[in-house]
Amino acid sequence: MTCRIEHIENRLVVGMKTTTTIINIGEDTKRLAKIFMPRRAEIKNRHGLHVFSIQDYAANFNPSKVSAEFDKWVAVEVETTTHLPEGMESFTIASGTYAVFDFKGTVSDIPKSRAYIFGEWLPQSGYQLDQRAHFEIMAEDYSKRLPQIEEELWVPIIKV
User: Fold this and answer.
1) 3 state SS of 43
2) Closest CA to 158 of 130, 124, 118
3) What is the CATH number of the domain that holds 12?
């Protein structure tokens, strides 16, 4: 899995969110995507054809506590939020530095990749996690039912 370091400015997205936990994230994301994806064409002023899957953790979030709650978003990037479809909200992905990992594999490979990122890469990188949203960027036609998936995993970091 390749990694690159990128600095981004604020990115504005429009989508839908739910509150979830580490235990429920898979099912909650699937349910949220089923509602959002057919409606994404209602969003005006889109920027690009990619889809975001966002985890917005609270400042006191503890990933080892599997019942800890956080916000999960499925969204698309926009230029402005002058028109928000009913039931949708806007969110700003905060500017900053991110480690970006190009993931290619099966859905069942994702936990192994996350274990590598947080258990091996991060401790040896000279960076630490920053308190900003984590997100994935996927193609417009993304589907976890495909035998091989591709997505970018964006992890917020700051130099130690």
Assistant:
1) coil
2) 130
3) 3.20.80.10
Total domains in the chain come to 1
Please give the span between the terminal C-alpha atoms of the chain, in angstroms, as a whole number: 23
Residue-number span of the structural domain to which 125 is assigned? 2-157
Residues in the chain: 160
The string of DSSP codes covering 90-142 is EEEEPPEEEEEEEEEE-GGGHHHHHHHIIIIIHHHHTEEE-SS-EEEEE-TT-
Q: How many CA atoms lie within 13 A of 126 on its CB side?
A: 3
pLDDT digits (tens, 9 = 90+) for 41-76: 999 899 988 999 999 998 777 777 878 899 999 999
Residues of the chain with pLDDT under 50: none
